[in-house]
Amino acid sequence: MARAKNRGYQQSYSPSYTTRRWKMGGYIRLSKEDLKKAREGKDDSNSVKNQRDLLNDFYRKHIDEFESMAEYVDDGHTGTDADRESFQRLLADVMSGRINCVIVKDLSRFARNYSDAGSLIDNLFVQMGVRFISLAENVDSYRDPDSVSSIIVPITNVMNDQYCYQTSKKIRQVFDYKRRSGQYIGSFAPYGYIKDPNDKHQLIVDEEAAEIVKQIYSLCLQGTTKRHISFYLNEHGVPSPTAYRRAKGLPVSSTADDPMWGDRVIWNILTNPIYTGDLVQGRRRVKSYKVHEIEAVPEEEWVVVPDTHEAIIDKESFEKVQGLLKRDTRSAPRSRELHLFSGFLRCADCGKAITRSQSGKNVYYACSTYKNRSRLACSMHSIKHSRLEAAVLFAIQQQVHLAVSYSELVARINSAPIKKSQSFRLDDLIAAKERELAKVTRYKQSLYQDWKDGEITQQEYRTMKADYEQQAERLSDILERLTAERAELANGVDKEHPALVAFMRFENIDSLSREILIELIDHIKVYENGNISVRFKFADEFRKIAEYIEINTTIDPAVAG
């Protein structure tokens, strides 16, 4: 019985080439590279017209086999990407039964991804009884089923896949070389710049747009939020980057169609280091030649080439803005400017933000955990605005006075015939850490013998070894920092030290502004009793300057007098 059934199945499956008529789907694809060559007249063998002519010619010669023909064209799409619009439409028509014969000029037109091509041709099409024809390779799954299974199909698919891999690799290498040599490789110049007409890899300032970039940075430093910067620009009729480029006849991305300013555009401008004159590229990349998703690149892998073009924003202002953007700086409803202390206040106990509240004319601050989450998790940590403002102003005035005094002392020390730079504190710290590192190294070295002698297990050996290695790495980092600090001290201190200059600029300060807070303060802690502590920027630098003064004034009291 089994044999009879088997013979019957073979007889019913055997096709008659003259009785079955197919619904043909002709697939045509032209890659961006092929499209460029065709436009330049270098190669039209893979052009859309050429492929269409070949498929139509096959259809006319075998018209008795087909009842219909539909065309699917992806113009300017890579074969490694399966998300091609017409390709997906073809597959959908195959699944619905509208198409049961797929024909292409050659296998590379169908797909250059080996796994995708193999899965469709060898599996899906076979299971659904779909005829597959590739003219160049003489593959026809209906007339010659063995042609699909022959070695030429998988080899050709692998070769097509490898071609894409090698092409992608070469392109990445070329782009990487251009980035590292300071050549701009973006399709469009960033807003505020245009490409040099004489060298498309160099940027020159677009004065009109550059003024808007400067205004955006100025508004941010004044305390205006990103959203309200966009409101301001839209209300004053300033064209958005997309609208500006269109008006100037400059190239515009096909996806850029927003004529208005928005938060994202403002954010991109405020965080782009290219405005400082440094060429920063490679911040995003395609995952692979097969997976065409865009992913962010870690900052340490960015390609940075300094001073390649004229700066629009000075580096100091840029860094201030970056520090400001990292803060939680939300404005109150109906307010376009940030409050004076927005983003600077922290609870001294839970570490969360201190938020602003207003009751009548009274403005005060309180712990956000206490107010918004649980009164059992933290206490109120309340302080009135007037008291906070006065306390912070006084703290800054004291720090400014200290900076002026340090500058005068440093000037006297540097004018003396003999200066001392040896820090016994640093010497003692370095010696102690060196001894500690030597001890950890000895312990680590003895572990192996303990394991061989059977005093510890292999697992204990591995665990303890990893622990000692972590300790050694930590101690090495500390020694490196302390040694660098000692070397820096040996070079002396200039009275025009950046830390001193930053505070001395505000020698006559009598009121606070956000610009001053951004310049001088890292954060402010508020305690339960209403006291505050101010963490100034340059705190480590002030400590080193104080040590330099202490070393020199203790050996020569006359310097201090």
Q: Mean pLDDT across all residues, rounded?
A: 80
Uncertain segments of ≥5 residues (pLDDT<50)?
A: 1-18, 555-561
Shape: extended
Overall structural domain count: 3
Query: β content, as a range?
Result: 5-15%
Which key features would you list for this structure?
five-stranded mixed β-sheet, 21 helices, 17 strands, Hect, E3 ligase catalytic domain fold, Rossmann fold, alpha/beta, 561 residues
Molecular structure report:
- It is a single chain.
- With 561 residues, the chain is α/β, with parallel strands linked by helices.
- It folds into 3 domains: 147 residues, 3-Layer(aba) Sandwich (Rossmann fold), CATH 3.40.50.1390; 133 residues, Hect, E3 ligase catalytic domain fold; 163 residues, no CATH class.
- 51% of the residues lie in helices and 14% in strands.
- The chain has 21 helices and 17 strands.
- Strands 2-1-3-4-5 form a 5-stranded mixed β-sheet, with helices on both faces. The protein has a 3-stranded mixed β-sheet with strand order 12-16-17. Strands 13-14-15 form a 3-stranded antiparallel β-sheet.
- The N and C termini lie far apart (118 Å).
